[in-house]
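# nightly structure sweep
# worker-07 picked up a monomer target from the shared queue
# config: single-sequence mode, recycle default, output format = C-alpha cells
# input follows
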Amino acid sequence: MIAGAEAAVWTERMLSALVNGVKGGKKKGLGLSRLWPNAYFAEHGLFALHQAWAAARQPR
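# output follows
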C-alpha cells in the first residue's frame, strides 16, 4: 500500500491504473506559430520570442 493512503479511498479503476499503467494520448498543440508567425510580429515592430531567445543565449 502507498504510504499515507487508506485502502478505502482506492477505487478499482485507480488500482487497475497502478497495475496496468496509463497510456498518455498525443497532445495536439494550438498551432499558434502558424496562426501568428514571428514574421507577423516583426512586420508590426513587435517583440518576437525567437529574438529574446537569441539574445539570452549570447554571452555577457
